[in-house]
Write a structure and sequence with these properties.
Layout (H helix, E strand, L loop, with lengths): L1 E5 L8 E5 L9 E10 L2 H8 L15 E9 L11 E5 L8 E5 L3 E3 L13 H14 L7 E4 L5 H12 L3 E6 L2 H9 L4 E4 L5 H8 L5 E6 L6 H7 E9 L12 H6 L3 E4 L7 H20 L7 E6 L3 H10 L5 E5 L2
Parallel strand pairs: 8-9, 8-11, 9-10, 11-12, 12-13, 14-15
Antiparallel strand pairs: 1-2, 3-4, 3-6, 3-15, 4-5, 5-7
Bound molecules: NADP nicotinamide-adenine-dinucleotide phosphate (NAP).
InterPro entries: ADH-like_C (IPR013149), ADH-like_N (IPR013154), ER (IPR020843), GroES-like_sf (IPR011032), NAD(P)-bd_dom_sf (IPR036291), Quin_OxRdtase/zeta-crystal_CS (IPR002364), Quinone_OxRdtase_PIG3 (IPR014189)
Organism: Actinophytocola gossypii
Protein name: NAD(P)H-quinone oxidoreductase
Length: about 325
């Protein structure tokens, strides 16, 4: 098969489209003919050499894909050859074929085309596992989504609204905030010009946020603890603002608040399978009803993965970048 590989750690130009050995499905795995993959921020870190794949995972980048089942490993009965699916991967999405544990394979939601479906597994599993399973967001609560215009953010806004929450977002420009409002965001904060703690408090009569989905890490830790409502839950999923911050336990304790940090890629297979199962049964009906829609900035041929990485690094991508296989 052909695949994108990282020839050496470095800038986007180290992504090279080249011949690679075909993967084979092991017991409990499914082999997919990949239709498309999508770019995640973690791919940029992997390319730079600072976020290696977990042991046993493919060296080919790509944490999600859509495609057609080409072969079944021993013991797989859930899918048939020819099924159109999408999948959460530990790696390998930027290649024409990938082997994936069956617990990470999802049907393509009805009404979503096969290529577009590649943009869903990572955002769906990340948002549902953190906002719903970990933080337990319920109707009537306030959800603050940092980076509302990104891949995760655009999905989280819609999930928050679907669950009946008031959704506040941060983004880097008025134009991007306006697009977040079209997706349902109620409270819009320009992070370059406004203080999110003040803005969210003012918009919620001093209540603050019941749940914060955070991509910034250290830089926003004090603000995130300040903005939490009583019994508030802060879930950190990204460290774009650094890894080491100061946590004011007095403030957290007074609010009976909690701070959790999670990652998806390194979780044991059983945990990933449980998340994927929840997504298929709870979230896919919302996608099939059109309540939660894929947000795709652009579809590029996979051979142009370097351009896709450059675009994500430069900023300005709204939602997801898809890489289509030839
Ligand atoms: N833990 C996990 O399992 C997991 C899974 C998936 C993703 N993630 C993480 O989640 C984060 C978002 O991923 P993604 O794929 O959605 O990436 P993305 O599409 O590149 O989005 C990144 C976002 O960061 C925002 N941002 C930059 N500076 C900011 C600031 N000072 N304050 C608030 N927002 C700021 C950008 O906003 P503007 O464009 O408006 O400037 C952009 O929307 C990344 O850190 C990623 O590593 C974690």
């Amino acid at each position: 098969m052909q695949a994108i590989v990282i020839s050496e750690p470095g800038g986007p130009d180290v992504l090279t489209w080249t011949e690679q050995p075909d993967p084979r499905p092991g017991p409990g795995e499914v082999l997919l003919d990949v239709a498309a993959s999508a770019v995640n921020r973690a791919d940029l870190l992997q390319r730079q050499g600072v976020y290696p794949p977990p042991p046993g995972a493919s060296e080919v980048p790509g944490l999600e894909c859509s495609g057609v089942v080409a072969a079944l490993g021993e013991g797989v009965a859930e899918f048939r050859v020819g099924d159109e699916v999408c999948a959460l991967l530990a790696g390998g999405g930027y290649g024409q074929r990938v082997a994936v544990p069956v617990g990470q394979v999802l049907p393509v939601p009805a009404g979503v085309d096969l290529v577009t479906a590649a943009s869903l597994p990572e955002v769906a599993c990340t948002v549902w596992s953190n906002v719903v399973l970990t933080a337990g967001l319920v109707a009537g609560e306030v959800l603050l989504v940092h980076g509302g215009a990104g891949g995760i953010g655009t999905h989280a806004i819609q999930v928050g609204k679907a669950l009946g929450a008031t959704v506040a977002v941060t983004a880097g420009s008025r134009e991007r905030l306006d697009r977040c409002a079209v997706l349902g965001a109620d409270v819009l904060v320009n992070y370059g010009e406004q203080d999110f703690v003040e803005q969210v408090r003012a918009a919620t009569d001093g209540h603050g946020a019941d749940v914060v989905l955070d991509n910034m890490g250290a830089k926003y830790l004090p603000g995130n603890v300040s903005v939490l409502a009583r019994n508030g839950r802060l879930v950190v999923i990204g460290m774009q603002g650094g890894v080491k911050g100061e946590l004011n336990l007095g403030k957290l304790l007074a609010k009976c608040g909690s701070v959790t940090a999670t990652t998806l890629r390194n979780r044991p297979l059983e945990e990933k399978a449980a998340i994927v199962d929840e997504v298929a049964t709870q979230l896919w009906p919302l996608v099939e009803a059109g309540t939660v829609q894929p947000v795709v900035h652009e579809v590029l041929p996979v051979e142009r993965a370097a351009d896709a990485h450059r675009a994500m690094e430069d900023g300005g991508v709204f939602g997801k970048l898809i890489l289509r296989m030839p």
